[in-house]
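SEQUENCE WITH STRUCTURE:
===
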Amino acid sequence: MSQTLKLAVGSLIVGVVVLGLKALAWWMTGSIALLSDAMESIVNVAAAGVALVAIRVAAIPADANHPYGHHKAEFLSAVLEGAMIIVAALLILREATLGFLDPKPLVAPVEGLLVNGSATLLNAFWSWILISRGRRLRSPALMADGRHLLADVVSSIGVTVGVLAAIFTGWPWLDPALAALVAVNVLWSGWVVVSSSVSGLMDESVSDEVLVRVREVISQEAVGAVEAHDLRTRHAGQATFIDFHLVVTGETTVAAAHDICDRIESALHRLIPHSRVSIHVEPEHKAKHNGIVVL
C-alpha cells in the first residue's frame, strides 16, 4: 500500500472518530452550533471516502482507454468534496434558522465542549499531516482533505467561543448565530477546494518557479542540440507532463539525438518525480531562434 493510500485510509478512520466525538458533544448539550460542527464532520467522512477511492483509481496504470493514466481522478474527488461542503453549509443554515425561531437553553455545556475540544485537537493534528504530506506527495485529494479539515478546526474554535459566550451572557440566540457563521465559513472552504481543483482539470501549467527550473535543465542537458522551443507543461495529480521540440543539426545521427533526449529526460525526472516527458526532434531549418538556448 502506497503512502498516499495509507494517509487516505487514516483520514477515513480519523473522520469517523471525530464524527463520533462531535455527535456525542451535541447529544450532551443540545447545542445547534455543536450540531453544525458534527454535520460538517459527516461531510468529512464522506469526503475521506471519496478521496480514498480517487487515490486508488489515480494509481491505476495507463491502459488502452486511458493512455495518459488516471491521475485526474484526484481532481474530480476534490471537486466532489467541495460540492459536499456546500451541501453541508446549506443544511447548517437550515438548523441555524430553526434555532433562531425556537432558541433553547444548553444542557451540560462544559462537558460537551470538552468532548468537542478533543475532536478539534485530533482534526488539527491530522489536517497538518495531510497538508504537509499531500504537498510533498503532490496529491490534490490529500491536500483538499487537509484544507477542509483545517477549515473545520477554525469553525470548531469559533463554535466553542460562541457557546461559551452564550453560557456567560445567557443569550440563547448566540448558539444559532454561531451555527450560521460556521455555515459561511464552510461555504468559503468549499469554494477554495473547488477553485483549486479546477485548475488541474483545465490542464493548468506548472508554477513559474518550476517552469524556470525546467528551462534551465533543458538548456544545460541539451548539449549537442541547437535549441529547444514550444515548451508546454501541465499537471494532473502526481503526474507532470512536459513536452517540447528539440532542434538538432543535419549531421546529428538518430542515435546521437536519442542520447540527448535520454539525458534531458533523466534530468527532468530527477527535478520532477513522476514527470512524463515527450520530445519532438526537428532538423536545423525548423529552429525558431526564440526558444531555449542550449548552453
